[in-house]
Amino acid sequence: METSSVPAPVGGVPQALRGILPVLVALPVLLLLNWGMSGSPFATYLLSIIGVNVILAVSLNIVNGMTGQFSIGHAGFMAVGAYVAGVLSLTLKEVAISFLPVVVSDQIFLLLCLLVGGSAAALCGFLVGLPSLRLRGDYLAIVTLGFGEIIRVVVQNTDAFGRALGLSGIPQTSNLAMIGFWVFLVVLVARRIAGSSHGRSLWAIREDEVAAEAMGVNTTGYKVRAFVISAFFAGIAGGLFAHFVPIINPGSFTFVKSMEIVVMVVLGGLGSTTGAIVAAVFLTLLPEALRSAFTAMGAEGSLAQKVDQIRMPVYGLLLVALMLLRPQGLFGTREFWDVLPRWIARRRKGIQ
Amino acid sequence: MSQLLQHLINGLAAGTIYALVALGYTMVYGVLKLINFAHGDVMMVGVYMGYATAFTLGRQNQKTFLGVVLIFLVAMAGCALMGFIIERFAYRPLREKPRLTALITAIGISFALSYGFQLDIGFLPGAAPRAFPEVIRPNEWLIIGDRDVVVWNWQVMSLLIAVALMVGLQYLVFKTRFGRAMRAVSYDHRVAALMGIPTDRVIAVTFMISSSLAAGAGLLYAIKDTSVTPLMGLYVGLKAFVAAVIGGIGHVPGAVVGALMLGLVEEFVVGYAASTWRDAVAFAILILVLLVKPGGLFGRVAAEKV
């Protein structure tokens, strides 16, 4: 993405190619990472979870952070993506493209399933976005919560989705390269939106909806679009998640999951993409780190097992403490590189 | 026909409990414009306080009239104190901040309470459901026909309590000096302060009343349901909140009407369709009502100022 701000293409690179240049650069890196990590399954699993959480946090940040429409039903979109992609993947299990190696054909089908799942989630995002026509603030938050719960109940009562038992036997085709690719894509999209005139409209809605409307911003249109984009990526994240855990069930997509994502966005700073990434990585690694720390301290095994129990109350207290002490989150609306040079400059001043 | 009547009665009974919880939401929202997301969890803590009191009283004493009164008093007083503490340390510092910060804080408190109570460290009760003692013996109060329609004593009791509390609250808000202060704070708390109203005290007392209401409602619910879990507040609270919004949040009779409506609809869904759809129907009604009337059935939509 940074490469796109490089001045005039030097000779060769055509205008049309410049947009996808970062993708072309990222792909070999990701494949290399995938190949490098193939030896250690736990690290791969952890990185996959981190990737999925980053996609979720960055996508929620588009709605909650940039547009200021507080949505607390993100797990619902994730569920739609996971289930639609999962079901499609199960039906296509036996199919392969004959002239391609199995790995490649698997990835193509995975991509297809993800796109279908993401589109289904985007459709739901459109439906959820529509009430934002008339509702704002905490009312909208409650409606999104309601949608998330409705989706969960619908899934729980549909035979095709395995009811309360969920889906099992989804081919585990997702790998680090695929997850990394989508992480990369969602960050690219989020940053592109933030810098565009589209993004400026979202910021305007966030700061003052009435004033934005008075200035001629089509607030409804932008809000619905933000919801659609956000839901699409949440659906993708759900699809990726479904393709590396063996079983998905309605219990994975409750209100609690939504709140985890909200905590990530709030901790990182509402409106900061890099903040969302940092918070997602930090909060995903935190339980693991605590667990290994407890084990290393030689504490009895029970304490290490309790980490997962302690996590949720800690998240709750973290939200309260953040709102009281640092309501703008770690980064506020700034990005990582906005913070960095200032810090360096201060250091220099100190040295002189 | 008799089946319909029975569902009607059960629905009304379920609705009255939602109504009691919803009244607390509505009061706090009316004064502070804050959705107190932790209200349901305050209710849960109240139920545990009642449970602990009943446990200390012992099997013999907890069923006497005095014992029941003591259980209710301890739980309600304890919750009032907790409501005061939450307001003082979590919401008051955020009063001049955007409303979403307070909502996030409320969600945080709700999570800390409901999941904190699931830990089994120290005195905390752990995640397993506990059986609430049968402090009020369930009695068939009215039987029509050959047990076609049965009305239980606790159903009548909770209905009477809910109606009495609604009337009492309405009186408090519209006929007393404190109620006038509440309405003034609700209208504009800064100007109210200029007029010599102790806004902080009014808000704190509102919180205490609403929290003790929650505790009372929670005990009625626990006596009916006979089980106590740390997560009960999350869903009962959510339903009560839905009821308050349907009725128009901030409107006292609206909360009761919304809650009764919700209780009836849920009962009919469970009775005539499938019980697993119950939660979805509650939220579907909420969304439909909000789409048609964004302020709820009885609420008014305030024009947003620039």
Automatic annotation (TrEMBL), chain A:
It is found in: Cell membrane. It comes from the Bacteria. It is a multi-pass membrane protein. Keywords: Cell membrane, Membrane, Transmembrane, Transmembrane helix. InterPro entries: ABC_transp_permease, LivM-like. The chain crosses the membrane at residues 20-37, 43-63, 108-130, 175-194, 226-249, 261-286. This is Branched-chain amino acid ABC transporter permease. It comes from Hyalangium rubrum. The lineage of its organism: Bacteria, Pseudomonadati, Myxococcota, Myxococcia, Myxococcales.
Automatic annotation (TrEMBL), chain B:
It holds the Pfam family BPD_transp_2. InterPro entries: ABC_BtuC-like (IPR037294), ABC_transp_permease (IPR001851), BCAA_transport_permease (IPR052157). It is found in: Cell membrane. Keywords: Amino-acid transport, Cell inner membrane, Cell membrane, Membrane, Transmembrane, Transmembrane helix, Transport. The chain crosses the membrane at residues 12-32, 39-58, 64-86, 98-117, 152-174, 202-223, 280-303. The keyword Transmembrane helix applies. Signal peptide: none annotated. Belongs to the binding-protein-dependent transport system permease family. LivHM subfamily. It comes from Hyalangium rubrum. It is a multi-pass membrane protein. This is Branched-chain amino acid ABC transporter permease.
